[in-house]
Specification:
Helices cover 53% and strands 11% of the residues. With 205 residues, it is an alpha+beta fold.
Length: 205
Amino acid sequence: MTEEIKFYYDYKSPFTYLAFAPALELEVTHNVRLRFIPHELDIRGAYGGELQQRPEREWFKVRYLYADARRFANERGLVIRGPQKIFDSRRALLSGLYADLHGRFRQYSQLVFERFFRRELDLENDKALAEVLNEVGLDPEDFQRFATGDGEAAFQQACQEGDLDRVFGVPTLMVGGEMFWGNDRMRWVIKKLDGMGLRKEVRGQ
């Protein structure tokens, strides 16, 4: 039996980046299959509007959250630098849907996360996204056709699924109908999967 785990993500979320590799590891240790679903993070709504509008209390919250993200990242040798503006990640999420459709989501997303949080990739820049797509063997021109065609419907379907699952932030993992929000909930996810009898047997024992 293989259990499906829904993984809701947004490329501009540092905590999604932190959860990404541990989530992939679940497919190694347990009889599960991850399904990646884009969920656009509403940073303006969550943290007090545009950068110029944020009250000091909201700025303190954001600075603290990024301090936490860097603490988690430092433990694993990752680099997370806070973005210098609020990015519209919709185009990048469409590219994630396209990469997933063509079996390259994991490779593509790893590069997008890594480069975005090093401030080496602009999520709003089609040319920059095209370079990463090309790097993992995908056709940027075909992506453009997808983004202006079937991609929009696929994105709306993902949004509707997120609404049905009552997703309010990312990363969110749905396991057996139970929600786990945040990169630091992974041990609870593992406990849940173990309780469902999904841990793979280790050969030779």
